[in-house]
Prior knowledge:
Layout: H1 8-35, H2 39-42
Amino acid sequence: MDAGLNSVLFWANLAVALAHACLAAFPVNRWLIARGSGHAMVHQHH
Length: 46
């Protein structure tokens, strides 16, 4: 909570959090696209 925008700790933790989010979201997105339920698939105008 003490890490500000100028802190390496802030940016390192942000990078780790984004990496974890990518690892969690990637397989779910692949599964949705394989089922034909991806974001662009559910909107008819895409």
